[in-house]
Amino acid sequence: xxxxxxxxxxxxxxxxxxxxxxxxxxxxxxxxxxxxxxxxxxxxxxxxxxxxxxxxxxxxxxxxxxxxxxxxxxxxxxxxxxxxxxxxxxxxxxxxxxxxxxxxxxxxxxxxxxxxxxxxxxxxxxxxxxxxxxxxxxxxxxxxxxxxxxxxxxxxxxxxxxxxxxxxxxxxxxxxxxxxxxxxxxxxxxxxxxxxxxxxxxxxxxxxxxxxxxxxxxxxxxxxxxxxxxxxxxxxxxxxxxxxxxxxxxxxxxxxxxxxxxxxxxxxxxxxxxxxxxxxxxxxxxxxxxxxxxxxxxxxxxxxxxxxxxxxxxxxxxxxxxxxxxxxxxxxxxxxxxxxxxxxxxxxxxxxxxxxxxxxxxxxxxxxxxxxxxxxxxxxxxxxxxxxx
Length: 389
Fold this sequence. Notes:
The chain has 3 domains: 19-132, Acyl-CoA dehydrogenase/oxidase, N-terminal domain (Butyryl-Coa Dehydrogenase, subunit A, domain 1, Orthogonal Bundle), CATH 1.10.540.10; 136-242, Butyryl-CoA Dehydrogenase, subunit A, domain 2 (Beta Barrel), CATH 2.40.110; 258-385, Up-down Bundle (Butyryl-CoA Dehydrogenase, subunit A, domain 3). Helix content is 47%, strand content 13%. It has helices spanning 19-22, 25-35, 41-44, 53-61, 80-93, 98-114, 117-128, 244-257, 266-279, 284-312, 318-346, 352-364, 375-385, and strands at 134-137, 153-157, 160-167, 178-184, 196-202, 208-213, 222-232, 237-238. The strands form 2 sheets. A 4-stranded mixed β-sheet has the order 1-4-5-8, with helices on one face. A 4-stranded antiparallel β-sheet has the order 2-3-7-6, with no helix packed on it. By secondary structure, it is of the alpha+beta class. The protein has 13 helices and 8 strands.
């Protein structure tokens, strides 16, 4: 038959948040209610794509950036469960967190694990203080999600590394101070995983050009970044030369595993539920849709929490994270359609705020399956992990 018809699925044991970490929820919620009081739902629906550097710095003053990072670098040294609580509150409130999000979520852990001590001392405290925002340089034009075929090249010279190439779909590069980029330091694109390395790039260097890309909603989160003879120092290399593929797959586990992979449409869902309850309607279609969303979200939350528990133990749940991201993206993309169906069935007149929020999420939701790896890439990872290919 060829394929294994009884694959062994990855173990995702149920996990619960310890009381000392759950206690973080109340002060975070109070802070957010005060800070976001005047923000409309269509703006809050941008959530982790909403950029507000002042908000990120305010969060840092509370000690809520770098919760899991070591105290010696300015972090709080807390568990992954504390960070899960924080992220859950930020996302469900629709806080504008994108300024610090990538740096806190994956850059700091990456540098902590693979970077030099000098890189840790230079960058991690800045991230924790909300003073350094970081972009991810992975995708390139004409390569789609095939990261192994990158062409951007860093060549050794007497001053360090000379960088040339292009990156695309780079979130917030036009607002970031640094980029961690996957580049080729030896060989050719046909060598695939061999010869790939990661470099830390100061985006203010000569030869760096950043071009924002406007999406259908009118926002500009994604960017194209061009490098023309950008001179990096010898200390720009992150980890060992040639270990880029191993490092980037570890980094993607952080990117794919968080609750942002299930809560991107949550402000829309909450806004609709609030109006649905206030209307007093018990239309069966709307009730069924509310139950459908609640049931699926409960399962996805349990899965995401289980992945957080694995990360907290220092494990690498690459396969599990891909599963959560794929299923979570499917849920997030269905929410606006379900709510549109419920509104049509109930026949009630929604508020202008709800309609603006629905329109925004409907326009943006196709991009959910691009960020963090396309559905095809994720399902390839899952199939390999289950022994199906």
